[in-house]
Amino acid sequence: MLPARARPVSVVLVVALLGALIAVPVGQLARTAFASGWSGAMAAAGSRQAVLALEHTALVSVLVTAFAVICGGALALVVERRPRRSRTLLRLAVISPLLIPEFVLGFSWSQAYGPSGTLDRAAGITVPGLLGPTGVVLVLTVHAIPLAYLVIAAGLATRAEPDLELAARASGANGRTVLRTVTLPLLRPALTAAAALVFVTSTNSFAVPQVLGEPAGFATMSTLIFNDLNLSASPDVFNQLAVVALEQTALVLAAILVFGLILRRTATESVRGPTTVGERAAVAAGGHVASRITTALVGLYVLIATVVPLLVLIGVALTRGPGLAPTPANWTTSNFADAFSGPTWVGLWHSLVLAALAAVIVIVMCLPTVLGTGGRARTTLGAGVLLGYAVPGSALAVGILIAYGSPLEGSAMIILIAYLAKLWAVGHRPLSAGVDRLVPEHAMAARASGAGPLTALGSVVLPPLRVALLTGAGLVFVLAVQEVTMSGILYGPGSETFAAVILNQQDLGSDGATAALALTMTVPLLFIGLLLVAGRRRLRSPEAVA
Amino acid sequence: MALPLHRPFRLGAALALAATTAITAACSGSASASPGSSAATGSYTITMYTSATQKTVDAVVAGYKRTHPGASFSIYRAVTGDINARIAADERTGGVRADVIWGTDPLSMEAYAKDGILRAHPITVPAGIPAQYSTEYLIPTRLLYNVLVVHKGFTPVPASWSDLTQPAYRGKVAISDPAAAGSAFAVLGYFAQTPGYGMAYFSKLKANGAVQVSTPTEVVTDVADGRYQVGITLDSLVRPAIKAGSPVEMAWPEPGAIAEYSPIAVTANSKKTAADAAFLDYVLSKPGQQEIAATGWQPVLPGVPGPRIPAGGHEVWPNWNALFPQEKQLLTRYQAIFGA
């Protein structure tokens, strides 16, 4: 899109950024991991703790991927094929758990369904094993279903062919046969992409295992890295931490490779179909009763997954002390006052500024990546950008700390670097999809008519990308405000983020104050998230980084 | 940093603001790097790592600033484990950034001293503060008491620590994890050292169905919720729960509440020796100790009244100097009984 002579400059710029943001930190991590040689690294990797953490992480990721893709796929099939009017609300309902920060989801589930949680005291209801592996898998699945749903729904929009399904039905195939022989094969690429995304996300997950796994002694790689840091005065422990972080990076990259290979195979197998509307099939596929059952089931799911935990969170935030019923007689605002004593406002301000800066800078970084390069260079650089998202947050943070800690440790700048490395891909994805839909001739015409390169960029190229730019910036902003893994490791005196303040509050303070902070974090993000989801409909690509 | 955050937040406005405040935000974390005056007068910044309660830190810092208008603070407040992580990260990236460290339990602070991070004899401890509270590096600031929290109305209220091993309390007792909470380590240390209890005390507790949860805060929550009827926790956590109306009571078992002190220390890296000493002197002065007492803690300075101790309530002390070298060994023996 940019003039040809700008291209080499763009490529050099992007490669330099990739090097500084991703290659150097991961390289430093590797150097630390192998500081005492191959045998030292192997010994650290073979320790009981490290092996258990690897097993737990792999187990959790595989189970969450399987459950989330099955549930997300089923939901996509039933919801996306309904008439447009009844679809919108159900879509928002299904996506809602994704809009709640992972930490808040874990904390509110433990308050709602955990031992001596609100429901336990009110009605003796608990989710058995919530504190432990079962709970970690369950809540991560709830968080991941919307991710799988979004990717599969996008696949349905571009791949499913109602005409083929109708033809199969007309030829006498029953619903199950159609699903097995027509719909699912066509959806295979979307299912694979969804599985890859969910696998990477749950391997990287920190907050849910920390809140629900840690009390039961169930450690994953992310929580082991975090807790090793707490004991890292000892060089052995720091060495183990670097080894585990590197292992975790390798696990994620291996998974991406495998899913990539599967994706390549399935993509060449299936025929790319034209974009079609799914409504006709919907009418053919199900009657009113089935549609009501769907609505009821989705409603029940959202009630259990988000509504009850959020209501309980409100109750805990408003109740004076532990052991009291959340009834008006026990209500107070003092939890909010407690929660906002100390550096909370400062942390909130830091989070907002860091998130806004990250959003702006990520978009600026994306411009040379998507506009200044073309063809294979763009694909390759795009893959490099994606790496930053794939590298687990805790591993990335430790790498950045080793690489840039000397001048920057504990400063807001080092957190910003981590956000840029991690969230570059999140801005890149919608923008890259938007550029794919641009007509290159428009820019050429503008240039031929005498417009300078910047004029052409500003007047012809960027305006149609507005939605993509806003979506990208908005997503980076929301994810940066929610981010807790990296800022929890990197913040220092005077550079605390809001998420770090909440994590501290949970460790040091009362449940009431933690709940008050969690609510403060969730409500505005839920609002921005819903706006983004509504706005996304104008842009056909999923915001998810697949 | 006093920006109008109460206004509805708008993305556009934030982006515009971001450009102008970028430098502020980026620099705020490195405030500690700015050279401070080496005298307690003039303007200087003290960087403090602390696990003390926010209210207490705020009150003490505000009190100090009233008499030292040039002072400002850069504070990193987190649980002990996170402070360990911060110090470890500091040491790998150019040395400890803190001037002052104010901890909760002597054990982790003593470990810093052993690593050579702390400065010996930063101030002269005021007269009247028992010598057993301080070491070469650690200065005591307040006392914490391990006591019993009892669900309201539950009888019989335990009169002594050994009552907890009786059948009346089978399956009803919660304790916190000494690997996670320094105060729980004080409990472990006291019983392990004291004739008549020993590690056998924990075996008996376990056999009587006592359950280990994570932190002393969780003990209070669980007892208030009625999940357990009795728990070992800190007095400073029980009082606010009682005040908030939670259904709990405090019991002060015999032979006494297990006491520990919360130490403060100056780092060897600090270049602001006079300012650090002035701050520590303030924390141990009458006004400083009054701020500590007003936020719910027992001061160490005689003559400053703290939260009321029940009539006839005694206190007992673990021998910290004997405990320091035994940390790992004691935890291993404990975990063999209350394994994760």
Helices and strands in order, then pairings?
The complex is a heterodimer of chains A (546) and B (340).
Chain A: H1 6-33, H2 37-45, H3 48-79, H4 84-99, H5 102-113, H6 118-123, H7 133-159, H8 162-170, H9 175-204, H10 207-213, H11 221-230, H12 235-269, H13 279-285, H14 288-318, H15 334-339, H16 344-371, H17 375-390, H18 393-408, H19 412-436, H20 440-448, H21 453-461, H22 466-482, H23 485-490, H24 498-508, H25 511-536
Helix pairs in contact in A: 1-12, 1-17, 1-18, 2-12, 3-7, 3-9, 4-7, 4-14, 5-7, 5-10, 5-14, 5-25, 7-9, 7-10, 8-9, 8-13, 9-12, 11-12, 12-18, 14-25, 16-19, 16-22, 16-24, 17-19, 18-19, 19-22, 20-21, 22-25, 24-25
Chain B: H1 11-28, E1 44-50, H2 54-67, E2 71-77, H3 80-92, E3 100-102, H4 106-114, E4 139-151, E5 173-176, H5 182-193, H6 198-207, E6 211-213, H7 216-225, E7 230-234, H8 235-243, E8 248-251, E9 257-266, H9 273-284, H10 286-294, E10 298-299, E11 315-316, H11 320-323, H12 327-337
Parallel strand pairs in B: 1-2, 1-3, 5-6, 5-7, 9-11
Antiparallel strand pairs in B: 3-9, 4-7, 4-8, 4-9, 4-10
Helix pairs in contact in B: 2-10, 5-6
